[in-house]
Amino acid sequence: MDLTTSAGTGDTSLKKVITTRQFVLMALSSSIGAGVLLATYSSLAVGGAASLLISFIVVGFAVWITMCALGELSAAFPVSGSFYGYSVRFISPAWGFAMGWNYVINFLFIVVFELVVMLLCARYWEPDLPAYYVIPGFISGLVLVNAFGAKWYAEAENAFAVCKMMVLSAFVIVAALIVNKSIPADTRPADEVGITLWQQNAFKHGPIGFLYVFMTAGMAYGGTEMLGLTAAECERPHKVMPLACKIVPLRIIWLYLVPIFMIGMVLKVSLDDTVQSGGISPLVAAMDQANLPILANVFNGIIIVAIFSMASASVFASSRALQALSSKGMGPRLFAKIRWGHPIWALALVFTVSLLSFIKISKDGDLVFNWLLALASGSNYFTWISICVCHVRLRLAIRKKGIEERDILKWKSPPGIGGSMIAIVIFLFGLSAQIIAAAQSPLPNPPHILASFLGIIVVFVFWAGYMVLGKGVLLIPLDQIDLQAKAAERIDNGEESI
């Protein structure tokens, strides 16, 4: 197993066809999916409105810091597959190898997850709708969106972004009208909506409820760093990532925090067996409780489109991550090849894995599905921690070598090295919350505690495997970190071994 061989012959270069306009709209809402549109339903029942909002504020703040760190890294060293490429460069090849495969596996199974969630949402209209009627159509749609390359993928994502912004904005407006008692169809007493309802359900199940919701917030923000991959196919990658760092706070406030606050004002959820069944969005449930069935149906339809968008983004992320890994000699050479402007073999693998969504048909489908998802459970936190550690080590390496920061950094992260350290602490807390919440889960049918460890186990298996087979170093000394941008380009093009 040669972990240090470059991809060899063949075209391994992706075309830079995504425009700044496309990138901006993708930065606003490209990775918003089932995490915020569906998982917040059970989170509200388990943790309460205040726990839900606080956890999203804390994790959102840390995610913004991480995007700033990634922006600084990508402005100085623009490379394809940037975040795990930076792990190779600033931490160690072994850790970069583990992070790359961690990311690929995570998004491979997110494609499966989003397909199943779309099926569950469709069953809002027809509870007995067979999976084999729906899933093949969704997979065909994903193939079609990704068949025309990055440019048309970006155009599709722009259309999906508008849909997501519209449904979340419309929900906030309707929720405000409900709170103001301006919806005649909603006959609930004044104390069952608004701030009174929010206060009554502010904190549920104590610290365990908060930890559970904190874990959900980490899952909901997953994919924000996907912009680092998208930038590799953007016309001006060194400019768009710093721009994304300025857009992300607007996205977090407008499309996460405000809707989540309003959900707690208009939706009452009890913790029972139905909470774990999935398939209903808190936005749709709130319209049902307000006796607005037409809006509930419209919202459900747009939410299916939004989740399809996240599935499409996951196809893009997993295929590009796999191609970038393989082009650096960290995966099979076959997946490094580009045909007709596409990472064709990487896409083939993604769509083959997507067929696992049919496990919902089997008798034990839910059990198998939960264990598969557990493989990706800790991926987001590991990815974000690695980005922040790379940022910290970049700054320390500059100081160690006595170089002026302005000679290396083309754009500096506003939170700086201190911000990245704060984010690392928050993400480590998120990883701990995942395990503690699983052990003490208040859910009626909690998953096996081992499931919460699977994502962590996978990361360290890949890391240890590289350390043993690739004879890797534990940590690159600061004075040996290469700070030359051209070296990053050579590595990115497969001209140097990892």
UniProtKB/TrEMBL annotation:
<feature type="domain" description="Amino acid permease/ SLC12A">
    <location>
        <begin position="24"/>
        <end position="469"/>
    </location>
</feature>
<protein>
    <recommendedName>
        <fullName>Amino acid permease/ SLC12A domain-containing protein</fullName>
    </recommendedName>
</protein>
<dbReference type="GO" id="GO:0015171">
    <property type="term" value="F:amino acid transmembrane transporter activity"/>
</dbReference>
<keyword id="KW-0472">Membrane</keyword>
<feature type="transmembrane region" description="Helical">
    <location>
        <begin position="371"/>
        <end position="394"/>
    </location>
</feature>
<keyword id="KW-0812">Transmembrane</keyword>
<feature type="transmembrane region" description="Helical">
    <location>
        <begin position="415"/>
        <end position="437"/>
    </location>
</feature>
<feature type="transmembrane region" description="Helical">
    <location>
        <begin position="449"/>
        <end position="469"/>
    </location>
</feature>
<dbReference type="InterPro" id="IPR004840">
    <property type="entry name" value="Amino_acid_permease_CS"/>
</dbReference>
<feature type="transmembrane region" description="Helical">
    <location>
        <begin position="131"/>
        <end position="149"/>
    </location>
</feature>
<keyword id="KW-0029">Amino-acid transport</keyword>
<keyword id="KW-0813">Transport</keyword>
<keyword id="KW-1133">Transmembrane helix</keyword>
<feature type="transmembrane region" description="Helical">
    <location>
        <begin position="253"/>
        <end position="271"/>
    </location>
</feature>
<dbReference type="InterPro" id="IPR004841">
    <property type="entry name" value="AA-permease/SLC12A_dom"/>
</dbReference>
<feature type="transmembrane region" description="Helical">
    <location>
        <begin position="161"/>
        <end position="179"/>
    </location>
</feature>
<feature type="transmembrane region" description="Helical">
    <location>
        <begin position="100"/>
        <end position="125"/>
    </location>
</feature>
<dbReference type="InterPro" id="IPR050524">
    <property type="entry name" value="APC_YAT"/>
</dbReference>
<feature type="transmembrane region" description="Helical">
    <location>
        <begin position="210"/>
        <end position="232"/>
    </location>
</feature>
<dbReference type="GO" id="GO:0016020">
    <property type="term" value="C:membrane"/>
</dbReference>
<feature type="transmembrane region" description="Helical">
    <location>
        <begin position="23"/>
        <end position="46"/>
    </location>
</feature>
<feature type="transmembrane region" description="Helical">
    <location>
        <begin position="291"/>
        <end position="317"/>
    </location>
</feature>
<feature type="transmembrane region" description="Helical">
    <location>
        <begin position="338"/>
        <end position="359"/>
    </location>
</feature>
<dbReference type="Pfam" id="PF00324">
    <property type="entry name" value="AA_permease"/>
</dbReference>
<feature type="transmembrane region" description="Helical">
    <location>
        <begin position="52"/>
        <end position="79"/>
    </location>
</feature>
